[in-house]
Design goal:
The complex is a heterodimer.
Chain A (H helix, E strand, L loop, with lengths): L4 E3 L2 E5 L4 E6 L4 E9 L5 E8 L4 E4 L2 E6 L4 E6 L8 E9 L6 E3 L3 E6 L1
Parallel strand pairs in A: 2-11
Antiparallel strand pairs in A: 1-3, 3-8, 4-5, 4-9, 6-7, 7-8, 9-10, 9-11
Chain B lengths: L4 E3 L2 E4 L5 E6 L6 E7 L6 E7 L2 E4 L8 E4 L6 E5 L8 E8 L10 E2 L3 E5 L1
Parallel strand pairs in B: 2-11
Antiparallel strand pairs in B: 1-3, 3-8, 4-5, 4-9, 5-6, 7-8, 9-10, 9-11
Classes of the chains: A mainly beta, B mainly beta.
Chain lengths: 112, 116
């Protein structure tokens, strides 16, 4: 079963605009990770946020985590055509369950 | 540093035939994962190894899928006999941190299977 649910399923923006993707999950987590997948390629890790963290930055990426609402958001600022890809959130379960479970992803298209 | 290697990249077979995929993880990574990704969906964990022991295979269809990781390094995933619904990309990943507290998964490029 898939833990995370990304929203929206697809997002189309112009270069230079910001892109925001949301992820909701159902059970307690140890941490939440975001991955990117270019068409026909493997997934690439972007950022990890732990359950006791609320916000994290990495370059043009900003991730927030609200454990009370069981949700996370990924913000990409000043988007570029090269950011076009699918973005997945993945949760690592709490307790002794260290399985990484992926959502269905958001397809981001950045138009030049 | 070499990444996760997978082969073959593409495979087309008829239903009821068998197929095998190979994965070589990043050197030193004790944990290895096989994920199945159907078109338009997120990856679904099939099996997770810690060294050469199985940690989780709860979503592996054991009547047709098998996987092994001999000597705790390379791994093979086999499907026999294949069904139409097995058409997907099979992704291998490895990680240094088995608890994924600080670590991340490193993915290979995947093996795309088409079952006709």
């Amino acid at each position: 079963s898939q833990q995370g649910e990304e929203d929206p399923q697809a997002l189309s923006i112009q270069e230079g605009e910001n892109a925001t993707m949301n992820c909701s999950y159902k059970t307690s987590i140890n941490n939440l990770q975001w991955y990117r997948q270019n068409s026909g390629r493997g997934l690439v890790h972007l950022i990890l946020i732990r359950s006791n963290e609320r916000e994290k930055h990495s370059g043009r990426l900003r991730v927030t985590l609200d454990t009370s609402k069981k949700s996370s958001s990924l913000l990409i600022t000043a988007s570029r055509a090269a950011d076009t890809a699918s973005y997945f959130c993945a949760t690592v379960g709490g307790g002794s369950n260290y399985k990484l479970t992926f959502g269905k992803g958001t397809l981001l298209t950045v138009n030049p | 540093e070499a990444g996760v290697a997978q082969s073959p990249r593409y495979k087309i077979i008829e239903k009821r035939q068998s197929v095998a995929f190979w994965c070589n993880p990043i050197s030193g990574h004790a944990t290895l994962y096989w994920y199945q990704q159907i078109l338009g969906q997120g990856p679904k964990l099939l099996i997770q190894f810690q060294n050469n022991g199985v940690v989780d295979d709860s979503q592996l269809p054991k009547d047709r899928f098998s996987a092994e990781r001999l000597k705790g390094v390379d791994s093979t995933l086999k499907i026999q006999p294949a069904k139409l619904e097995d058409s997907a990309v099979y992704l291998c990943a490895s990680s240094l941190d088995p608890r994924l507290n600080t670590g991340e998964l490193f993915f290979g490029e995947g093996s795309r299977l088409t079952v006709l």
